[in-house]
Amino acid sequence: xxxxxxxxxxxxxxxxPPGKYSDGGGLWLHKxxxxxxxxxxxxxxxxxRREMGLGSVSEVxxxxxREAAERWRSLVRGGLDPIKERQRQRREAARNxxxxxxxxxxAFESRKAELKGDGVAGRWFSxxxxxVLPRLGKVPVVDIxxxxxRDVLAxxxxxxxxxxRKALNRLxxxxxxxxxxxxSVDLQATDKARALLGKQRHKPENIPAMPxxxxxxxxxxxxxxxxxxxxxxxxxxxxxxxxxxxxxxxxQINGDVWTIPGEAMKGRRGATADFRVPLSDAxxxxxxxxxxHAREGFLFPSVKKGVISDATMSRLMERxxxxxxxxxxxxxxxxxxxxxxxxxxxxxxxxxxxxxGGAVERAYRRTDFLEQRRALxxxxxxxxxxxRGQVIALGKRSRNxx
Length: 402
What we know:
Number of strands: 7
Strand content: 5-15%
Number of domains: 3
CATH superfamily of the largest domain: Intergrase catalytic core
Structural class: alpha+beta
Distance between the termini: 114 Å
Mean pLDDT: 85
Strand order of the largest sheet: 1-2-3-4
Order of helices and strands: HEEEEHHHHHHHHHHHEEEHHHHHH
C-alpha cells in the first residue's frame, strides 16, 4: 500500500521541536537541537537505501522540498541513483561555466612549447587579450556564437585586418581546446563569423623602412650605451629580425659567428638547421658593450623581467618623429645590397635569413654562403658606421678592390 504523502504543514514545520518528521514518500524533516533544520530524501536504489539532502529549511520551503523530492523519485523509478545523478549534473554545470578567459589562457599554456621563446613576447596571446577578452572574457565558452565573435571583431576587421585575422584564428584554437576538455562548443562559430564579417578590404602595407643612405646618421645617434640603443645598433648591423636579436644569449656567440637556433627563425618552424650570422668588428663591439647589461643569459634584458620588447625599440623611433620602424632596417640592408653591391640574389636573400628555392634545390645546395656574407656585412658595417661603402662584387671580381 503506497505511503501517504503531504503529512506536514508549513506551521508544523515551523513549530516542530527537535526530531525527525516524515512528510511521506521518503521526504523527511530533520530538526536539530541547535535550532537548525534540513530536508532529507530517503530512497531505495537497487535494494540499497540512499539519503540525500535537499537543503536547509531556511532556504527551501515545504513546497519546494516536495517538488524536489518528486523530481529525484522519478529518477529512482527510472533506475538511476539520484545522488550520483546530481553529482554528474554538478560536474556538467561546472564544465559549462568555464569562461572564455580561462579557456584562452589554458590553450595558451598548452601551446607555449610550440612558440618562439615559449611565448614570452606575448604575440600569440595579445590579439585575444587586447581585442577579444575585454568583451567576451567572462562569457561561458559554450555560449559564444558567431554573432558574438562578429560583433567583437567588426570594429577592427578592415582597419586592423591582420590583427583581426590572428584573433579569429586564435579563437578557433580556443574553441577546439574547449571541445577537447569536453565542453559543448560550436566549432564552426569562427567560420560562421568569418562569413558574417565578409571579405577584408584592408591591404597589407609594408613596414616603413629608412633609406639606406640615412642609416649612418641614425646609427650615430644611438650612442648612450643603453640596452635599447645597443639592441638597435646590432639589429642594424646584422639585418636579423627583432625576435632572435632580443632573445640573443651569450652561448649563441662563438668567435665572430652568431648561431640562431633554427626554431627561432621565422618560416622555419620545425626546422633543425640553425642560421649562422657573420659578425663584423662593429657588431662584436656592440655585443661586448651589451655584456655588461646581461641578465639570466640574455644580452638585452628588459628593466623588470625577460627581454626587451619590439615595441621598446619602435617607441624610441616613434618618439624621434620617424615613420620607419626597426623591422624596416632589413629593407634598408636589402636595398643597399641591390644598389651598391653585385651580390647574387641567393647571397642577398640568405643574408636576410630567407629560404631560397624549393625543397629539392635546397637538398642539393648545402652552403649558406657564410664567407661571402661575411664580406658583405663588413662593407655594410663600414657604411653604417660612417665609413665609405664601396661597390663590391661577390662571387666575381670586385669593381673596386679594397
